[in-house]
Amino acid sequence: MSADAYATAPPTLRQRRRAAATREIVNAAESYIAEHGPHALSLRAVARSLGMTVQGLYHYFPNRDALVTALVAKAYEDLADAVTAAVDTAADEPAELPFMAAANSYRRWAITHVERFQLLYGAPLRQYEAPAEGPTTQAMRRIGEIFQREMFAGFTTAQLAAADTRALSPALRAHLHLLFPHGRETLPPPATALLLGAWGHMHGLVVLEAFGHTSFVGEHQAEIFHMAMQDLLDDIHRRIPPQLTQIDDTARSTSAHSTT
Q1: What CA–CA distance (Å, rounded) separates 201 from 229?
Q2: What is the pLDDT of residues 177-202, one digit of tens each?
Q3: Contacts of 237 by beta carbon, 8 Å cutoff, 6+ apart
Q4: Phi-psi bin for 62: left (phi > 0), alpha (psi -120 to 50), beta?
């Protein structure tokens, strides 16, 4: 049998059973976190809820960190799926900007799944370290790519490179240069700085609400958030110049008149 045939062969019965058992364990762990919070996660309790022994659970997840990594990656993917669905819906409704739809969906998911959001962005679990460039990193990048795309939709790389930001130190500019891809190039440092600032603003408001720090605002929290995100987007877009070809044409015209 060729290598291609092996690559496209359907999973075996054993593989399907293992995948089903793995999903069941992850679902049980999510239910446990929803009830007790991420810091109370116990492999023994998860195994007990499934009628398994801890040794049996280790057959699927060799240690707690492996299960936590699966839970974090799945939470990121579920969050990204919700944000993507909101953006896709906004594409059919011109009155709603995709970025605003993405931001509002991010907030809704966080306040609906507070314990899973806490697993992602709350106090780190003691003695847990996500694998470098592992599934959690890849899943987190997917969310960042969505907001990057929708925030800068319609702008060229040249426009983003000319965005009005505070002067960036050479060291910071060099560090920002390779953080985010942008089409076939990297996102210019000024745009990366704007993106990171916007992310901190949006995420900070969501964290405050999800963890109960803005409950005094009551039922108006969604409106406050929406207003803040609209102001944020408007400010960022004001910092990005119009098409540079238009600027260049104006400059050339002004220069020609000044020399006649």
Answers
A1: 9
A2: 888 877 777 899 999 999 999 999 99
A3: none
A4: alpha
Where do the DSSP E strands lie in 105-187? 181-182, 185-186
pTM for this entry: 0.84
5 occurs within a structural domain: no
pLDDT one-digit tens code per residue, 38-74 = 999 989 999 999 999 999 999 999 999 999 999 999 9
Stretches in the chain below the pLDDT threshold 70: 1-7, 94-96, 244-260
Q: Is residue 4 part of a domain?
A: no
- By C-alpha distance, which of 76, 59, 180 is closest to 130? 76
**Host H or E run for residue 77:** helix 64-90
Taking the chain, what is the end-to-end CA distance rounded to the nearest angstrom? Answer: 78
Q: Whole domain around residue 53: which residue ranges? A: 11-258
- Alpha carbon distances (Å) from 18 to 43, 75, 95, 112: 18, 21, 46, 30
